[in-house]
Amino acid sequence: MTEIIRRHRHLLLAPLLFTLIVVSLPKEGGLEAQAVENQDGKFIEIKEGTYVLPSEDLDFELQNEVLSINEGSVLVSTDSRTNIQSGSLNISSVKGAFTVHVRGGNTTVASISAPVLIESGEQMLLIPVNYRWKGNGKLAHLHAGLDKWIETRNLKKINLDYKRDQLKTLRLIPDDDENTSTSYLDDFNKLISKALTPIRLPLSRQSVKQAKLNQDIDDLITNAEEGDFSSALQSIRSLNNNGAFENIESLDWLLRILPNKDGNPEFLAECLSKFISDSKLWLLLSIHPAYQRTAWALERPELSEEEQLVELISFPQSDILQEAAPSAVLNRWVEDTKSVVEFVDDDEELINEILKLIMESIESFKQYGYPQREKNYSRVLVQIADEYDVNIIVPEVKDEVSAEPDLEPASTELSTSSPDLTPDQVKAQAYQILRDFGALFTVNTSIEPVSSETAEVNDVIFGNEARNFTLNVVNNEVSDVEYQDKILPYSLGIDKYVEWVSN
Predict the structure, then answer these.
(1) Considering the entire predicted model, what is its pTM?
(2) Domain coordinates of the chain in residue numbers?
(3) Is the CB of residue 476 less than 8 Å from the CB of residue 412?
(4) Is the pLDDT at 364 greater than 70, yes or no?
(5) By the 8 A CB rule, do 125 and 118 touch?
(6) Between β-strands 89-103 and 4-8, what pairing exists: parallel, antiparallel or unpaired?
(7) Shortest CA distance to 379 belongs to which of 364, 358, 400?
(8) If you average pLDDT over every residue of the chain, what do you get?
(9) Does domain 4-172 have CATH number 3.40.1390.10?
């Protein structure tokens, strides 16, 4: 029997300490700030790794680990993925925090540190980090016209003070690191056993196989937590060969051990490749600050027309990392624009909306001091305008992009202090240099040290294509460049190489 929990008001009983927690919405745009009074300031764990801080007046139901909100507010934090219901809306997110505020039939969702996907039937919208959406639960169908479609998906930026308050409140989440490894291992063992049940091996072989799985799981957890991603990568591949990731629940578990920042690209690519069949999860990862670059480098799932359109309009607003989105990602986004224009009836209006969105992004980048992004999107603006014969006035872009924090040359400190690098140091430095210059990494990418200064790089993405070359991590030079089935007989700086392949 399915257990249904219903609650209305006074969710937390017998408080020892009264604390006023502000989970408020910014006053701009006609929204009133709403204080969320939580009697003891404690988060409630609604599923493994997902916590909510409810308002005292929260009217809700909890069924199968899904929270349905009738009235009230919650601050949600998840280390995997989670779903919240509000009327006809399904609100989902992955690896981060967001708020949901339901009042008088209207729902407001604000993305704090992770993007949010909202669905109403087959209609949907994406909310990038630092944006919010307010609606009455109805998302217009594309058949109603592009103007109506866009109107019901209008986003506004959240107030920075509001975001700061929420991040401060998130520190109240209990720290259960001491029990994490044991909990992960027990939970994952059950999932693996369930996934492997149909195999029906003889008893002795079952025991051997289970023991090997236990060891791989334990190694994976330990190595991931300690940051030994090379070893963790071996464990993941071993588990994958045994069918460990075919169960959807175990994929949620895998999300929990993902690093919260762009760590080892090879490890991230291997992990995220397990989710390529899930289009909705890919949409969230494709605009997630920690996983965007890796997600775009992978083969993505087939997207519906609705999914293509929401991905198209949300991408520029998600370009908020310290490093600007690589040119390869921007080029793919431009190609997506061409695909979407083909199936939208109001194609001229869509093109104008895209150009408007790009120009707004350029103004935002100019305001906050991101000249490299300003330059990149100005290029895209001209490219799309020329493609569809639209006359536009291109915003003036300053030439001084040297101060741009988006793209800094890789540090050479390692080369001066440690002339004889170990293979692991060479590999780590190569990853860092390539990442700094906008490379994308896939599951096919390999970086193999061949000396104390150089590494052989294969299948790294620059300019929309897989590239092969040798990289000197001491002087940042590229040699043995493969081009049209030939090896070029000269070397050049990585900056010049990137400029060459991008053009």
Answers:
(1) 0.73
(2) 4-172, 319-406, 413-502
(3) yes
(4) yes
(5) yes
(6) unpaired
(7) 358
(8) 78
(9) no
